[in-house]
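[Discussion] Sanity-checking designs against the backbone

I'm trying to build intuition for which residues belong where. Below is a structure token string of 727 positions. I'd appreciate it if someone posts a full sequence so I can compare it with mine line by line.
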């Protein structure tokens, strides 16, 4: 695809199928096109890749994309191929012949975007090859890997500045979703960026519901959560390989569509499991943190942290894999202090004292997020240097609970604090609550806590209510929590509550609270049509061996099922449908929509954006040719009038019909010399396989039907879909 003379706006619509840029995308693209080094910090799913892919299609030369994982490269390249973009990757998965062939195409100028790991880019062989081409842009994805203060520091990323030195004319764009102010500065300093070219889009993923539950009966909590997300795609993260195997086996045994993923699996099994998840052949993946980086599956509707992640960056990055299509998604974290001890054990075994200190700082920030009773977004965004000004986001458990008014909980506080004191100020909240609720656990008897005066005096509250209150008591300064083991100690403020009747006001959730169900994605779309379109998408994805979302994401199918477009041109008003996708798949999906509407007497709805959208520019030549043909001229007459070849005339007619213009079917079919049986076979083939390429149809007829005739039949087929065919 050569679009160097086009504008970012036109590429956005024609190639990617989007009507408008998301916040900051246009400004970033403009900055990169001016050859200004650019640092981009944008949330996962906010469209970072567009910021370098569009400049890559405008630049005359090559754009290198440094990516840390093979899965990320493969996913990006597959999606670009579906858009008609010449992209490739170079990594260890390629055969010797494949590797050399891609290198040849790079030197020949046939590749616009090349994805590589930093180790591969820095080799002498690659540097020599790049010395033979024009390198216009160096893109560094997951740029936080450059910083020693980041949670995924990679020394090889630090060496990328040498590429900048070797190619001083190439602009550099560094992108990440997780970078504290300190990490941002470290990235800019390492790459020698000038100040003033940083774009920070903010970290708030408004469509993600954040929920943290104290880990009580984790398997039961998980199953209850999954029941509310039936048939939806999601990821469950676990701390260890053993837990992944155990949990995935259990879930499969009770009927869930689930597979495991961790580094201990055979490489082929791990790859197959990931591909099945991406291709919607399995709904749920249970995984260690090894899974998901670079996976751009847009319809992940939930993320569960069955165990505590090691820091806020990991948590934020992993929940960022949900809701990339902009639709709502649920994120549940099951928190237990026992998990913290495991993480701290590994931190203490680090050889590097500096890295050990950073890891402790990161973990403490995560604990503050867990224990807050304010809006979850406040500590989460503050960690990344962004203030969250709203008091109630409406999309986290704490804010939903805030709908309940605060009340006087002084007596409850006195009971809790007294129990902490009588147990020796050495136990965590879970044990204190067991004492208050009169638990008969072995631990209670081992410490003789069943003999305490506070034993069983707190049965009026559920365990979850007490846990919710305990977090507030810590936030109110009544208790200090041991950073290593979670033990609680009284503060001077607690003395006033216990002995001087100081009042305590806090929130108290209702006794019976159910886990929140994912926000309804959209109510006013036709679910029967949506399923028909989704089934067709899956068939095409399996045929072409690409993920279903690479053809169309869910929100595109939802819009089709909401507006019921009846002409090919009107499909261009649907989110995610550009000229390339229209040519490849438009007629296939349009036929399904038309059939459904005819059977159910449904009429087309015009999206509001189609009224606002500027008229699409038309090429005068093919419009003139198309109009003349529609008025009754034959193809032979068009050749004489416009002094063009027959193939050129048919090409103009093809483009004319693609833009939604009408040509009478009965007039067009007169140009075909094929017998009716061949015509219907051709129409059936186009209906199933799309209209973009003629070679597959040529092969289907074993070369017996010439291309010129196939081209005419394709125009005739499209005439039927423009609504011009008589009833």
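Best answer:
Here's mine. Compare freely.
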């Amino acid at each position: 695809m050569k679009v160097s003379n086009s504008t970012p706006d036109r590429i956005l619509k024609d190639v990617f199928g989007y009507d408008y840029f998301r916040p900051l995308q246009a400004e970033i693209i403009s900055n990169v096109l001016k050859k200004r080094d650019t640092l981009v910090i944008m949330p996962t799913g906010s469209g970072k890749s567009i910021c370098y892919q569009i400049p890559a299609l405008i630049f005359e030369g090559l754009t290198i994309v440094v990516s840390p994982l093979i899965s990320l490269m493969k996913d990006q390249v597959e999606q670009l191929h579906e858009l008609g973009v010449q992209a490739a990757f170079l990594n260890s998965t390629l055969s010797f012949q494949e590797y050399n062939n891609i290198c040849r195409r790079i030197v020949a100028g046939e590749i616009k975007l090349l994805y590589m790991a930093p180790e591969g880019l820095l080799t002498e062989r690659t540097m020599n090859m790049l010395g033979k081409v024009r390198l216009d842009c160096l893109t560094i994805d997951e740029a936080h890997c450059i910083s020693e203060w980041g949670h995924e520091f990679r020394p090889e990323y630090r060496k990328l500045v040498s590429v900048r030195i070797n190619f001083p004319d190439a602009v550099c764009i560094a992108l990440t979703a997780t970078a504290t102010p300190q990490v941002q500065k470290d990235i800019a300093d390492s790459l020698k960026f000038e100040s003033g070219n940083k774009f920070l889009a903010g970290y708030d993923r408004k469509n993600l519901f954040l929920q943290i539950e104290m880990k009580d009966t984790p398997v039961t909590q998980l199953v209850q959560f999954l029941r509310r997300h039936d048939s939806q795609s999601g990821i469950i993260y676990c701390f260890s390989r053993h837990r992944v195997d155990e949990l995935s086996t259990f879930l499969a045994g009770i009927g869930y569509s689930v597979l495991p993923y961790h580094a201990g699996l055979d490489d082929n099994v791990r790859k197959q499991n990931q591909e099945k998840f991406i291709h919607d052949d399995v709904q749920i993946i249970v995984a260690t943190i090894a899974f998901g980086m670079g996976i751009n599956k847009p319809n992940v509707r939930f993320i569960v942290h069955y165990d505590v992640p090691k820091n806020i960056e990991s948590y934020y990055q992993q929940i960022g894999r949900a809701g990339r299509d902009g639709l709502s998604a649920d994120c549940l974290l099951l928190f237990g202090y026992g998990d913290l001890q495991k993480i701290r054990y590994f931190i203490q075994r680090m050889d590097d004292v500096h890295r050990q200190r950073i890891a402790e700082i990161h973990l403490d920030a995560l604990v503050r997020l867990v224990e807050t009773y304010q809006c979850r977004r406040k500590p989460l965004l503050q960690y990344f240097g962004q203030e969250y000004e709203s008091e109630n986001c409406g999309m986290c458990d704490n804010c939903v609970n805030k709908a309940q008014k605060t009340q006087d909980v002084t007596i409850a506080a006195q009971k809790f604090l007294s129990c902490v004191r009588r147990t020796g100020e050495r136990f965590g909240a879970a044990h204190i609550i067991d004492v208050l609720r009169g638990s008969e656990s072995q631990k209670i008897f081992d410490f003789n806590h069943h003999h305490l005066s506070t034993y069983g005096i707190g049965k009026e509250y559920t365990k979850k209510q007490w846990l919710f209150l305990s977090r507030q008591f810590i936030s109110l300064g009544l208790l200090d929590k041991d950073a290593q083991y979670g033990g609680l100690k009284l503060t001077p403020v607690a003395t006033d509550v216990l002995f001087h009747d100081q009042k305590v006001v806090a929130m108290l959730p209702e006794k019976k609270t159910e886990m929140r169900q994912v926000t309804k994605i959209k109510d006013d779309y036709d679910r029967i049509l949506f399923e028909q379109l989704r089934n067709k998408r899956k068939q095409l994805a399996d045929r072409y061996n690409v993920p279903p979302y690479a053809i169309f994401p869910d929100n595109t199918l939802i819009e089709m099922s909401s507006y019921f477009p009846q002409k090919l041109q009107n499909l261009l008003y649907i989110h995610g449908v550009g000229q390339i996708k229209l040519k490849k798949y438009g007629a296939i999906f349009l036929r399904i929509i038309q059939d459904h509407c005819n059977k159910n007497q449904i009429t087309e709805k015009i999206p509001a954006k189609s009224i606002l959208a500027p008229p699409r520019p038309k090429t005068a030549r093919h419009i003139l040719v198309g109009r003349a043909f529609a008025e009754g001229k034959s193809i032979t007459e068009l050749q004489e009038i416009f002094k063009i070849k027959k193939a050129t005339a048919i090409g103009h007619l093809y483009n004319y019909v693609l833009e939604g213009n009408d040509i009478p079917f009965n007039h067009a079919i007169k140009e075909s010399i094929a017998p009716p049986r061949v015509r219907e076979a051709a129409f059936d083939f186009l209906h199933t396989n799309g209209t973009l390429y003629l070679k597959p149809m040529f092969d289907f007829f074993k070369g017996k039907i010439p291309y010129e005739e196939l081209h005419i039949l394709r125009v005739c087929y499209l005439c039927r879909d423009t609504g011009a065919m008589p009833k």
